[in-house]
Amino acid sequence: MARNNCTLLTEFILLGLADTLELQAILFSLFLVIYTLTVVGNIGMILLIRTDSRLHTPMYFFLAILSFADVSYSSTITPKMLVDFLSEKKTISFAGCFLQMYFFIAFATTECILFGLMAHDRYVAICNPLLYSLIMSRTVCLKMAAGALTAGLLNSVIHTGYVSSLSFCSSNIIHHFFCDSPPLFKLSCSDTRLHESILSTFAGVNIVGTLLVILTSYCYILFSIFRMHAGEGKRKAFSTCASHLTAIMLFYSTSIYTYLRPSSSYSLTQDKVASVFYTVVIPMLNPLIYSLRNREVKKALWNVITRKRVPPFLGLLG
To answer: How far apart are CA 215 and CA 204, in angstroms?
Structure first.
């Protein structure tokens, strides 16, 4: 927002990912396919978990919430990016810019916390199986999910509030394809050092804090798996944990690179590539990772595909 002698801004211009029309057309087609797969995959995962009673467990409850977070924060960015590929003037209003930032940060933070909750769930299931139903009861799971979403919303209020309080005087051109804090810090004519320090602290607490929970949980999990005698139990535990760890590595590597490195090392091109990965690609990959490496999800999906309705008159005969 404008301050003192600064001109009041009503909109920003997003430079996007490509300069030429040919490349924009190619990227539009590519990201349209990716976004379609993201929506179909994540909503399909939610519906599959909802309809199959065998998937009504805490692990799949959190997976359904993760799918909701994935499709939500991808939908705050990708549709606008697709429209900009076809537009000559890639503008976004001042309010729209920070509204996009708010929902992106809220759902991304929620996802970060969900990964920690899912690791805790696996820890209890593998290390304390006899107490699992008591510790991870329906009420506890609902409170955990509500807490994750509430923390995401509160973190986003603080983050967006700090960035929107900056002054933008000299230019309204954002060297990015969506409204994120690093390019807006570069654009601002205010002294952003305090703001960057505060927001980096919040990002560090969210990312490093949940990562510590994940690493601690999996240290105990791996120790318990190696102590198992049954080969089938080991394979099932490894399969479930491998899919979770794959999704975690993809998400945290790009998040740490973008938000926890010094601002002096900020690179427009490299940050765009990293941002594409965690805002567009990872939400598409998560349902694939959890379905392809999970026997229960594959079985539930196969049952849905092969399910045949019994004709009414045959049902009466039974």
So the answer is: 16
Tokens of 126: 């593998």
- The pLDDT tens digits of the residues spanning 14-36 come to 988 888 888 999 999 999 999 99
- In SS3 terms, 64-80 reads as HHHHHHHHHHHHCCHHH
Contact 13, 176 (CB under 8 A): no
What 231-235 contacts at long range (C-beta under 8 Å, 24+ apart), as own/partner pairs, is none
| Chain-centroid distance, C-alpha 288 | 14
- As given in the structure block, the two tokens for residue 28 are 């539009």
Q: pLDDT per residue over 261-291, tens digit each? A: 766 666 667 778 888 988 899 999 888 888 7
7: helix, strand or coil: coil
Pair 69, 110: CB distance under 8 Å: yes
Radius of gyration, CA atoms only, the chain: 22
CA 30 to CA 111: how far, in whole Å? 25
Closest Cα to residue 140, out of 166, 115, 120, 111? 120
Handedness of CA 101, 214, 285, 41 (dihedral sign): negative
Nearest partner of 287 among 246, 235, 234, judged by Cα: 246
Average pLDDT (208-234) is 81
pTM for the model stands at 0.86
Q: How far apart are the C-alpha atoms of 235 and 225, rounded to whole Å?
A: 9
Instruction: Yes or no: say if 182 and 258 are a contact pair by the CB < 8 Å rule.
Output: yes
111-160 per-position pLDDT tens digit: 999 999 999 998 998 888 899 999 999 999 999 999 999 999 999 999 99
- Estimate to the nearest angstrom the gap between the alpha carbon of 180 and the chain centroid: 15
User: What average pLDDT does range 167-193 have in this prediction?
Assistant: 85
First CA to last CA distance, the chain: 71
